[in-house]
Structures
1.
Amino acid sequence: AQTVTQSQPEMSVQEAETVTLSCTYDTSESDYYLFWYKQPPSRQMILVIRQEAYKQQNATENRFSVNFQKAAKSFSLKISDSQLGDAAMYFCASTRLTQGGSEKLVFGKGTKLTVNP
Amino acid sequence: GAGVSQSPRYKVAKRGQDVALRCDPISGHVSLFWYQQALGQGPEFLTYFQNEAQLDKSGLPSDRFFAERPEGSVSTLKIQRTQQEDSAVYLCASTPETGIGYGYTFGSGTRLTVV
């Protein structure tokens, strides 16, 4: 079965510092995408960053970047210059083909990030 | 609409009651997904629609769960004879195409509590 593992249930960081959230995954898909989603208390899942597995270059979005190690099946998220608004649950996810031909997401259990002022 | 809208935001049901959860996706989005998120867990896939066709329902936990999208827009997730283990947040998401390259747009979910 396809799995996504987030080994850090909770992390904390000082405002303006850098933090890295870990994620490993296991997939038999030859082509897939990887995502980091943020879920604040409002419950809405917000896309933070996406990575196409066939691309070697690590994705970046402003203060957010990933370290994608395909052979190791590792996909960590680095948040630079952390802000109070970054506090939330963060979920790592990978795609898996559905029976209908589209792709569904397989999520990890999440990491709760606290940002200290 | 501008985003994915779900209603109600909260639902409390007595064990054994039937419930219906509504999802209004972004206009024109072809694909619609339902996920179940238990407390302290990541979301888990329930079912997938491409327009009005339900192409994958492999994640539905029992035959008490039923989903429909009759006109290819609004979708309803129905749970019959609710049980305590059905308590969770139910998330709906949509994408404009059948692929997922750009990720989903999620709604804010319905929190179902079965007492």
2.
Amino acid sequence: DVKVTQSSRYLVKRTGEKVFLECVQDMDHENMFWYRQDPGLGLRLIYFSYDVKMKEKGDIPEGYSVSREKKERFSLILESASTNQTSMYLCASITSRGRGYTFGSGTRLTVV
Amino acid sequence: RKEVEQDPGPFNVPEGATVAFNCTYSNSASQSFFWYRQDCRKEPKLLMSVYSSGNEDGRFTAQLNRASQYISLLIRDSKLSDSATYLCVVNIYGGSQGNLIFGKGTKLSVKP
């Protein structure tokens, strides 16, 4: 079965900390994505990557960066966490033949 | 105009009822379409793809109207376990390229 694994389900970080969210997929997919989901705002794309070492900005990249050093791993980095980055973060990998995404189980980040 | 629009609901229906959700999309070049289901505090999961000819999976029927740019999801004989948020999703590029555009979801609550 296809699997996208996010390293943490819940995280609490302090304002100003550097935060790493890790995502690993076992499907050998080129395309990976990071979203955040907030009540009333739906899913918003932060960054995505089409291949190793490639990255593209999504709709809301400010305050975030990403790293794709290996095909299976896509990391989201909050350079200096702020309270408005408290959210649910979802990683996804697109299935072959465009049959939609498989999501990781999400990381609920709270910045205090 | 928003790219993918859905009625947020909630739709409150009794068990056994038939319920239908519609979704409109703005980009006429959209290639592929999906319905996702998201349970409370969980990640979205692919419910079904939507094909031009319409498709059915058990109690669920999806339809696509390209001329009017909308897709629909019909749930027959609703179960308590159908309670969730249903996300309408559009892929502009098709295949495994590009990223998916998500609606904000329609909340369904099935009551005993």
3.
Amino acid sequence: GENVEQHPSTLSVQEGDSAVIKCTYSDSASNYFPWYKQELGKGPQLIIDIRSNVGEKKDQRIAVTLNKTAKHFSLHITETQPEDSAVYFCAAASGNTPLVFGKGTRLSVIA
Amino acid sequence: EAQVTQNPRYLITVTGKKLTVTCSQNMNHEYMSWYRQDPGLGLRQIYYSMNVEVTDKGDVPEGYKVSRKEKRNFPLILESPSPNQTSLYFCASSFGGRSTEAFFGQGTRLTVV
């Protein structure tokens, strides 16, 4: 089945700097790659997703890139702010397999 | 407001005492699932349902049961809870199944002593 590896497990950045979180997946049939943000005491919430027919997607300060050949995808957050501090999860799925999540990255933005 | 509602938010129980965690969504979603979240292990799927009366095992189904008698509700049942089921549980729903946005509930923190 699908296996998703996520790195790093923790990440600290200065406010205003960029943060990058990377994930790899094993199942070449996976075609949907969402990123979720989990704030303290809350459930995960989708922040951006990308499908396998697209290489990059941006939404304001957040971008995701996908390299299907290498089977990896990354989350980029620019101009980080304290409210970006949270746990971030990547995931992968196909039409035949459910979402498989990475183990999460705890991002701390230091003011 | 579109939401997934779980109850209770916090629960402490004793080993072997049956319990049910309820989950309800108001978005008319077909696909619902349960996850447990443990430190260092991320989110692992327990059970999922693709529609009413259709349920299937996820990655960690042992010790859990589910039912889907109505589209909006997907309760998680622990017939005989054990301490290794102490965890943070999330219910999620989505419209189109596996490759669409999942909406998560607020979570249920369960402690089994």
